[in-house]
Amino acid sequence: MIMIDGLVQRIDKKLQRFDPLWQAKRGIGGLRSRYNDKTGVAKYREWRGIRDTLYDYGQWMKNLGSMTVMVASAPIPCLKGFWEYRWMGSYLGTFMFIDRLFEGYRGYELRIAHHNMHAIVQSLTKKIALVLSNDKRLGGGPLSDQMIPYDEVLPPLFLKGFKDLIPIPLQTLPEFIICDIDQQLEPYYIDVAESFGLPADVCSRCAAETGVAIDDAFPIIGKAFLTTNMPCNASEATSMFQRRRVGLPDMPVTLAMIHNEPGAHPYSTQMLKDTIAFIEKEYGVTYDWDELFKYAKELNEQNTIELEKWEFMKTPYCALVGIAESLYRLYSWASVNGQDPYFTKTDRKVLKLITKAYDEKYEPFSGKTRHRAFLWGPSAVYYTDFPTWAENCWGINIVLNMDSTMGHNQISTTDPEEAIKDLALLSEKATMRHHAVGGWENVNAIWEWAKNFNCDMVIFNDNVSCKGMNGVHAMMEEQARELGFHFIFLEHDLEDCRTISRRDMRKRISDYMSIVLNEKPLDPTLVDFDDSEAY
Amino acid sequence: MKDLKHFIYFENLLRDARNELVAQAVEDGKRALGYNCYYIPEVLLNLPGCFSSRLRAPGMKFSNIADYYMTTRNCPYVRAILERAMEGGYHYLDALFGAECCAAMERMEEHFFLLKPVKNDRFFVTIIDPPMKGDKTNLDYYKSQLKLKVVNELRDRFGIDVSEDAMREAVRLHNEISQVITEIGNYRKLPNPPITGYEFHVIELVSQVCPHTLILPYLKETLEELKDRKPEPKFPFRARVVLAGSEIDDPEFTKLIEMCGAMVVADRYCFGSFPGREQIIIQDGESAYDAICRHYLQWNQCARFMDGGKIDQRHEEIRRLAKEYGADGVIYENMKFCEFWSYEKVLASNIFTNEIGIPCCTIEKEYSLGSIEQLRTRFQAFVEALEIKKIPGGDKA
Description:
Chain A is an alpha/beta fold. Chain A is 53% helix and 8% strand. Chain B is globular.
């Protein structure tokens, strides 16, 4: 073993000139050097040393395996899907997307990131195959009428009490997750909506959903549709559009918006009960609490582990960082929400790795972190790898993201009456709405979060069309000054990369770092580059 | 037509939120209760000892301070209200009853307790979480929210009588003023009405911004006057339209449409009379408070309601108005940056044009009447299109 270690070290030393981090340190290249300008197509894979490069490549192959299984399990529906849906083609960018996410990752942070990412890939590929195999637009399948299409922002755990039904987040495949992968896709759907008369100043995510609906690009599944008022006004409005196009009996699951008040929870609880009654009626099935409890246990364990992870995140020795944390949490909470035990297993494995790294006092990114930042507000979906860039370019470690703080209360696994109350509480603290809407205290909670996680910086995602967050603009800035945080408004347009490009977003950070803080970049090749034509 | 006796007085009352009738009521010791949105039942703010004051910001040209706090990418109405508050225009208020009816509105109302722009020691703000559907679950929630954040607050902070008798008295007064306004508005159904849309808009607005007991005599007198008012010898407009959409509290906007040749015969927008001036009916065995909540949920036409029943209701209501008031078309308006009406405008114009067969014009506007020439062009073109349809065979054009 010692001999192998020695050999690896010698080879690594010989080949270190190909390592972009080594190059950046010496000013002779960097992480951007291996890319073609504009398209962002890499000329070669990132050299990370023998062990990390092989590990990274092995994981790349593993993800490829999941995609192969997806196509092999449903070859005809997948083929039809590529033919029918514009968004299906964008999934081909997945590999480039993953490579981009984990640039500069080494050692523990790389391993943890791939554990998390593979959980997403295996889940997503299964979901794509399942949906396409039963999509009535493509001919349907045996499970078509057993699916419950629901708005992706509604936490689906409570639907697991319907043993034979399969909850499917309708917008996730054609709109949300695909925008993470391919920045070029959603502008098409946004244009469809705008050509229909929708103003350009509404939230681009909701405009994109509207465009998908008008373009008939939602799969047709299920017997009834659950919409929701979450997270905000535009989501409510697009839901009204979608229900008309989807054409199924629908139920808007409207949970309390001002949810941090005692009066809110009985209402939200009753709303979930009404929803269960609606599904029972439309699908002719009966709710099974024991079935729910089975999955609630999974989510309870995941949330317990999440809270343990947070304790590590408060230290400089946490190897779960940046986008590896936030993308996983977003997907595992919002989309999976306890339904897939694979995520519990992943959490256990990752917690072990985090603990090991902490015991070794391992600092991610070779200890080059200069600032610990809390990312607040809804993030730009078209710039998923922003945290990776921020760390590699300026040494800003995005410790935690607003959406990662979603509901983490425990769900009763014995008492139905308690369980439904717990589910209501969990649902009120869902994606993008836990802190972004529903009252001043929710958004103003950032300072406490940032302080608890030992952050010196707050990056405030400034979605230009988010009316609720625009409404607290100056108050947030004034608070930051008063409390002594470095504070950066990061303008973006959520799913429309044309309004504010990734390059514009980087410039915002770089200007603050160089002009206000007078700092030098860790990797000068990352300061300004053009990736306007990239996935 | 001969001028209405009190019309200039009405116009003057709209020049300032703290107009002379508001000032008189405050001097009489009544509590001035501000609100923005229909979700806050006006009738509850007119319990004995207090009066409602729906917030406008007349004459607002620039909202620089509010722009700083809320950015220029937010609803111009809420920015105008915040700006006016910062200027000191609402010091007469004893309370603001807000609603999380949209994110922009809620954020603006939050600034009333964060920045404390109203210099009045008694002043406080509450914000309800309003319902989004018309079902029983939402009605119960609405009741509990209004009880907690309006009724109990009035009772506990100001000692306002919120008993059944007091509620019934408030409903009686509401029904009385609504009856007068409705009768005035009904003249718009006539082929050649003795009142213009602009005049009605002014009259409806004064009923919302002035203490009801003080404005009612003037309104009654105006109603009597209208009974004998002679219209123009020939209908002076080229078309009749329903104006629908979000917040419109500037009668100059109605005047603009009418100067382009289309009389606004029905006003289905925030600050309009549909909804707002319907009779509250207290059913047998029902408390006045329950009747108020049920009434406001039932009649609310906000584009925020998500359930199919309420969505259909708001389209049906426009269709009803178009039919009853003999409208040739509908103008759908949304305040710039209004998410709800941006979507509703698109959806409804598609439904009306392609499914119901009523022509629609959709426009977007600022709070203060800007881009007037562009709007004028749009309205003139719409009026011409409506005229063409009246020519035999013109509907095929």
